[in-house]
Design brief:
Layout lengths: L1 H13 L2 H19 L4 H9 L8 H26 L8 H12 L3 H34 L4 H18 L4 H15 L2 E2 L6 E2 L13 H19 L14 H9 L4 H16 L4 H15 L12 H16 L1 H7 L5 H12 L8 H4 L1 H24 L1 H6 L5 H20 L2 H19 L5 H23 L11 H14 L1 H16 L1
Antiparallel strand pairs: 1-2
Length: 500
């Protein structure tokens, strides 16, 4: 009951007029940041962090966290309307969200995305409120081997659960691993695959790759089709919001499963991106309409958006309770706490109750306010589809170039974006899935680092990945998911003749 009393005290702090104003401003800025390709929640929070130094820590964290919520919501907008993920975790949303927009169902897709985002975030905030001490104690058990186990499970789920040909999925993933290996080796300090170019010292930035693969690749494909954007005639009315809400309860199992996956990935260091991919893969495998995924299924929007927001929100828990950020944005917020003279950790809940519970209360109100803001603007977002593609394509190209340039203020990144755009175009023409490659680019270097740290700890013995029940269970689940098509095939061969 003490947590409930503290939470009500937090609400009393948040509903002060100044803090409510900061909340609304933060959400609006966050939505804009989420829409702009290449900026992202972490960069937006980092850029705006100096503006909060004159505020009290509680007001500052409310504004910055609401920028984070707004960016989470905004990332779905360009993913659905233009097939350009505004955020890394929005990539999976493009798989069914954009086809829905092309079919004239943009308002339905946006409403489903925003509502699912709210549900995932709300589930994670309730989890933080109720089980913070237990989750914090559990996260302490994650070492390098457990981290690698989570990454291994994410990779295996994409291979085993995908209905794409396995060799194409593996081939795309291998390209992603090769791209992730470029640059400075974090373990030894050696340069790898840079070919003497100083521009490749830091490797390929994920945002550059995504902007090129999805943004430029989509423009090239659409140009080939004759500058016709299939969704431009979509007509949206506010009634679509209510109709979509009436349909969403049908997917409550998908939402619940995605919430659990998202919270798991958020509390562990995996993050929102693998959570969205894994949730989408499981939904595709387990849904009765899984064979239609990729053609505009609303369930294919619900799954990744719910998981991404649950992961993005729950990532703040280890940052507050342990001082270990679970996402790039949480790392930026951690820096803000240190600047404000606050030391994250278990004692923060004891010494700074007003701050902690004010932040948690702002999560509740911030997500409600964010949902109302973006849903109010659904007709406006969907109306963008009425603009002829011959006009909108150059604008998208300019935004992509600006987004790529601002990542490192380098024209070389703009050239890389174009190269990745051609690669994305070729992969789409040859029917190779891009999602596995994107997943490997994101997690490849992290998985390698965790793997090598584990082997250093065990003096080269692979037994470390089965050394305790936690890591052993994660690795076993990964192998089961990887071999699931073979298991399913063998099961049907054994029992179908008997049933006949």
């Amino acid at each position: 009951m003490e947590e409930i009393a503290n939470l009500f005290h937090g609400f009393a702090v948040v509903i002060e007029p100044f803090n409510l104003m900061l909340m609304l401003v933060g959400i609006l800025l966050g939505v804009i940041i989420g829409v702009l390709p290449g900026l992202g929640g972490a960069n937006g929070v980092a850029i705006l962090l100096p503006l909060t130094f004159s505020m009290s820590p509680t007001s500052a964290i409310i504004m910055l966290s609401c920028i984070y919520w707004g960016a989470l919501f905004g990332g779905a907008i360009t993913s659905i309307l233009f097939n350009i993920p505004g955020e890394p975790w929005s990539v999976a949303t493009t798989f069914d969200g954009h086809p829905m927009a092309q079919k004239g169902r943009a308002g339905e897709a946006l409403t489903a995305a925003f509502t699912s985002s709210f549900v995932g975030a709300l589930f994670a905030v309730i989890m933080i409120t109720l089980v913070a001490p237990l989750v914090a104690a559990f996260a302490l058990r994650f070492g390098p081997a457990e981290k690698f186990g989570v990454y291994f499970l994410a990779f295996c789920s994409f291979i085993g659960m995908s209905k794409e040909p396995a060799f194409k999925t593996v081939a795309a993933m291998m390209i992603g691993f090769a791209l992730a290996a470029v640059g400075l080796d974090q373990m030894t300090g050696q340069l790898r695959l840079t070919f003497g170019s100083e521009y490749l010292l830091t490797g390929f930035d994920f945002l550059i790759a995504v902007i090129g693969l999805f943004g430029i690749g989509e423009i090239l494909l659409t140009m080939e089709e004759g500058l016709s954007f299939k969704g431009r005639t979509a007509v949206i009315s506010p009634r679509v919001v209510l109709e979509t809400w009436a349909e969403l309860p049908r997917y409550w199992i998908t939402s619940l499963r995605s919430c659990i996956i998202g919270c798991w990935m958020g509390v562990t260091p995996a993050g929102a991106t693998p959570a969205s991919f894994m949730s989408y893969g499981l939904a595709k495998r387990m849904s009765k309409t899984g064979h239609k995924f990729g053609t505009g299924e609303i369930e294919g929007v619900v799954a990744p958006e719910t998981a991404a927001h649950a992961a993005g929100t729950s990532a703040l828990l280890p940052m507050l309770s342990l001082g270990v950020p679970g996402s790039p944005t949480a790392a930026v917020l951690l820096g803000g706490l240190l600047i404000w003279g606050l030391q994250p950790g278990p004692m923060l809940f004891v010494e700074q109750k007003e701050f902690v519970w004010g932040l948690i209360a702002s999560m509740y109100l911030g997500n409600v306010a964010g949902l109302l803001v973006v849903l109010t603007c659904v007709p406006l977002f969907a109306a963008i589809l009425r603009i002829p593609f011959s006009i909108i394509a150059p604008i998208i190209l300019v935004f992509c170039a600006i987004g790529a340039y601002t990542v490192h203020n380098s024209t070389f990144d703009v050239m890389l974006m174009l190269v990745f755009g051609v690669l994305g175009y070729l992969m789409k023409k040859c029917n190779y899935p891009m999602a596995p490659m994107v997943l490997a680019i994101v997690l490849g270097d992290k998985a390698e680092e965790a793997f090598r740290q584990s082997l250093l700890t065990s003096q080269g013995s692979l037994s470390i990945f089965w050394s305790n029940g936690l890591v052993g269970t994660i690795m076993a689940l990964g192998l089961i998911v990887l071999l699931w098509p073979l298991i399913q095939s063998g099961w049907s061969r054994v029992f179908r003749p008997a049933a006949a």
